[in-house]
Amino acid sequence: MQRARLPEPCWNEAVSLTELDRVGARIEACVRCPRLVAWRTEAAARPPERYAGEAYWARPVPGFGDPRARIFVLGLATAAHGGNRTGRAFTGNPTASLLMRALHRAGLADRPVSEHAGDGLRLHRTWLASAVRCAPPANRPSPAERDNCLPYLSAEVAALEDLRVIVCLGGFAWQAALHWAGVRRKPKFAHGGEHRLGNGLVLLGSYHPSPRNVHTGLLTEPMLDEVFAQARRLGGLA
């Protein structure tokens, strides 16, 4: 797929980040879930050999991106040696690599890699975050841990005044978004499936860009490209 051309200018430097900064500070200071606090600390203290000696973030990870975002990409949870290490959502692991290549091809990121918080990555009309902001054991947060994090999703969505669509990466993120929105008769998750919320936002489902889903063929890069083309249309960016 040919990469969409970024419009000029891509980012409005005059946009205030004050409210998003305040939300981010609250997220970073959160200690609501004792199990997650313990696990994110343990993961930082016992890194795999490839990350030995690195200073880990080891705190909840706030969202990242363009304050004028029309597309919110919502993941499952912070990765123990991804965002928990780097301090930025979808950075420094194989899932981030696949996602960032797709965002770059869609014209929503200025480069196809997300390596560390100081790498200069810029997003266009896109915001990245996870439903659960700390790394959970076995990548499986509990319903209570999910619910403890949902107020932060509310705060970020409220601060992103141009938002139109939330891309839910996987069934967990889809269910978390439906629970957050108070949807009673929950539509089934489907890759490319849409559900319009009462506030006008559209939920858009996508298989999670995990190495397992890619290796088994459940998700391919063209399938991910199709979802972000769909997101661009829903966000008025096509």
TrEMBL record:
Which Pfam families does the UniProt entry name for this protein? Answer: UDG (PF03167)
CDD domains in UniProt: UDG-F5_TTUDGB_like
Molecular function terms from GO: 4 iron, 4 sulfur cluster binding; DNA-deoxyinosine glycosylase activity; metal ion binding; uracil DNA N-glycosylase activity
**Keyword terms of this UniProt record:** 4Fe-4S, DNA damage, DNA repair, Hydrolase, Iron, Iron-sulfur, Metal-binding
Q: What positions does the domain Uracil-DNA glycosylase-like occupy?
A: 62-228
Query: Any one Gene Ontology biological process term?
Result: base-excision repair
Q: Which domain of life is it from?
A: Bacteria
Q: Mind telling me which residue stretches traverse the membrane in this protein?
A: none
**Family of the protein in this entry:** Belongs to the uracil-DNA glycosylase (UDG) superfamily. Type 5 (UDGb) family.
State the name under which the record lists this protein: Type-5 uracil-DNA glycosylase
The species is Amycolatopsis vastitatis
